[in-house]
Amino acid sequence: MNKEVTEFIKDKTLINGQWLEAISGKKYPVFNPATGEQIVLVPDMGQADTRLAIEKAEQAQKLWLKQTAKQRSIILKRWAQLVEAHLETLATILTLEQGKSLAEAKGEVTSSINYIDWFANEAMRVNGDVLPPSAAGNFEFVKKRAVGVVAAITPWNFPNSMIARKVAPALAAGCSVVIKPAEDTPLSALALAALAEQAGIPAGVLNVITASSGHEVGQELCANPIVRKLSFTGSTEVGKILSRQCADTVKKLSLELGGNAPFMVFDDADLDAAVQGAIAIKFYNSGQTCICANRLLVQDGIYEAFIVKLQEALGKLRLGNGLQPDSTHGPLINEKAIQKVDSIVNQAIEQGARLVQGGSYLPEIGKQFFNFTILADVTPEMDVFKTEIFGPVAAVYRFKSEEEAIRLANSTNYGLAAYAYTEDKGRIFRLSDQMEYGMLGINTARFVSETVPFGGVKESGIGREGSVHGIDEFLEMHYVCIKN
């Protein structure tokens, strides 16, 4: 581990510009999921620490809001430049704590740079409206103002970019932030906070709470009336709990929750392109993303050919420690994840699915590695159809008609991302009209960027992150009427 990586692996957390231990003095370990080795001990914080961070954030936000939009923009751009200057270091830290390959980690940090830079520019574009007068002699207008203190609860699967995607628009809008990173992956958040401090973001505007359990911290973030906005990325189950906890203080919410993404391949598709798309999005981050293809729906005429080509393509991937140059994919995040994926696969086989390859974990590589798996002849009646797998398991379903494919794709409470491969132009427009998803990729599987309004419908969430719409999540409209 080189000197700079060691320097940016923090064993304290940032509150009000100070690097602190937990008030209780407790710590908890952060492990490398590829090796099982302990990386560092970080503060195990609770309600008192969280309340302190919120109070300091409130004080700092009043001063931060007095900065002009241009001043905030300049500081955010400086943060983006520092992240870019330390890209290799941040990617290494990300791989150490999360496990993904170094190439994927570099891509994620690059995404963070893009989000910070994008919202640095959006800070300058928060505009209001002058309204037509509702009565003679009136001057009426609407202005947009920062919502206030923001709580950001981020997931372990993208511990770097999820910070940037939430924090950058909040800061651009004039909010202060208290971040609660996932317990498994706090180090990327702390490293980004250190660079934010170097960039000139004032003390108290950006605070980080690390904790081995989100329960106590989450309760305080939701119940504390000072916090006016909660932005959460995680499971639908937890999102619903947080939503209920925020109800008493009527907070503004952004919830990016679970998915059950269909990946539809029609007979007329470019089969090689469809297979490469399936590999790219099904096995992205070893299947541990909310937009991963969760159900591969393949039309009758090319069903078996698709499976053969998918198996051939999987043979080119390599599981291993993400820091090794030949590793394309890393481990699952923890032992609980391994047990869940193993249970899903075994249950599907018991219910009649055909195991084409894989289907087991690989202790010879490490305790948290699960083999690339293909399940064929899966049916909608099986439990796996309704389950977000979150692992490197491709469950392949068969369909006959376009109507059946759309019906199967929409047969879920989720509505985050969907994918379809077809050369039929009419079908493309029918899909865009009928698919019940916040995002739809046609003949492409990787479309997420800072310009895209990321988010879902139904039980996949509320609100959008990224794009020109992303900063609106951290603003409120204020109407003013002046009588002449």
Automatic annotation (TrEMBL):
InterPro entries: Ald_DH/histidinol_DH, Ald_DH_C, Ald_DH_CS_CYS, Ald_DH_CS_GLU, Ald_DH_N, Aldehyde_DH_dom, Aldehyde_DH_Superfamily. It comes from the Bacteria. Keywords: Oxidoreductase. Signal peptide: none annotated. Gene3D superfamilies: Aldehyde Dehydrogenase, Chain A, domain 1, Aldehyde Dehydrogenase, Chain A, domain 2. It holds the Pfam family Aldedh. The keyword Protein biosynthesis does not apply. SUPFAM superfamilies: ALDH-like. The active site is at E256. PANTHER family: SUCCINATE-SEMIALDEHYDE DEHYDROGENASE, MITOCHONDRIAL. Belongs to the aldehyde dehydrogenase family. This is NAD-dependent succinate-semialdehyde dehydrogenase.
